[in-house]
Design a protein that fits this description.
single chain; 312 residues; Methenyltetrahydromethanopterin Cyclohydrolase, Chain A, domain 2; 6-stranded mixed sheet; 14 strands; 37% helix
């Protein structure tokens, strides 16, 4: 079963349960749109389904109690058995969708059908599916022109497209970003030149921030949740020497931009993601467990001060 087909099963569950999830389903140019946080309120459970769809249903996502200092703060916990497929081929938000005035960060397995990102030259997993599923982190509903662009890019008919859309400043949108603790570690390893196929599983958790009143604040809080609050464990194979080589560079604290709330960093670079040190985008803490040698190495630390300043 393709990545897109596996994600479609989650979308069908959402479409059959929109009332309880506080979502809505509509058609735009014959494509199915699940509104999980644009015009609809959405919910934590909608965000969990959204996150599962984004990783092609190859992982589990849960919300559990937690705290930052004395403030109750839920944690989003993910467990992934095929991290290259789930995180890199599917969940990674690697497709900037720009059509006229419309913009969205695109993730989910439709990226594997599009297949134009250089990442796929390294990991494989390009697909030619019958149907596609995409996640849109956006402020607006997709337009007819957006659907035409996606249909052409993914080589499918519009009626075979399902998109789940949510603002970052929404319950579901926040959950799907914070559910990227393992994905950000995987992407950082890729940037460091590590063979991702040595990672055979991952567990991660990160605090779910309060829903922000505006888009920029939401971007700041959700990024801080990962950079300063996420902890993940990666189960790896192979030699320890190469793990030691990448270890110190793996957590967010290895970046020169580390230490301030992300909103302040973002403002300093005139809201241009590409000017920020790419080494910043990784979890606060990463534990590497070598299942062949039995060694464990943990790098990084959480930063409660920054999280408190950002969230509350």
């Amino acid at each position: 079963m393709s990545l897109n087909e596996q994600a479609m099963a989650v979308c069908n569950e959402m479409a059959n349960d929109v009332k309880d999830l506080s979502c809505a389903v509509s058609l735009v140019a014959d494509a199915r749109i699940i509104d999980a946080g644009i015009d609809q309120l959405g919910s934590i459970h909608a965000g969990i389904k959204l996150a599962q769809a984004s990783m092609a249903n190859l992982g589990s996502v849960h919300a559990v109690p937690g705290h930052i200092g004395q403030v109750a703060t839920p944690q989003i916990v993910v467990s992934i058995n095929q991290p290259v497929a789930a995180c890199m081929a599917s969940q990674y938000a690697g497709w900037q969708i720009c059509v006229n005035e419309y913009f969205a960060m695109g993730s989910g397995p439709m990226r594997a059908a599009y297949g134009k990102e250089p990442l796929y030259d390294h990991i494989g997993w390009r697909e030619d599916p019958r149907c596609v599923v995409g996640i849109l982190e956006t402020e607006e509903q997709p337009t007819n022109q957006v659907i035409s662009y996606l249909a052409e890019s993914c080589r499918v008919n519009p009626q075979n497209i399902t998109l789940i859309a949510a603002r970052t400043a929404s319950l579901a949108g926040g959950v799907q970003v914070v559910a990227r603790s393992v994905e950000t570690a995987m992407h950082k390893l890729h940037e460091l030149g590590f063979d991702l196929h040595r990672v055979i599983g991952g567990l991660g958790q990160a605090p779910l921030p309060p829903v922000a009143e505006d888009h920029l604040t939401a971007i700041g809080r959700t990024n801080d949740a990962i950079l300063y609050g996420a902890r993940c464990t990666l189960y790896v194979t192979g030699d320890d020497q190469s793990l030691n080589k990448v270890g110190e560079q793996l957590p967010s604290s290895a970046s020169n931009d580390y230490g301030q709330p992300f909103a302040e960093i973002f403002k300093r670079y005139n809201h241009d993601f590409y000017k920020i040190d790419p080494m910043l985008f990784s979890p606060a803490v990463v534990c590497l467990q070598n299942i062949e040698t039995g060694t464990t190495r943990t790098v990084g630390q959480t930063n409660t001060d920054v999280l408190t300043h950002s969230f509350f």
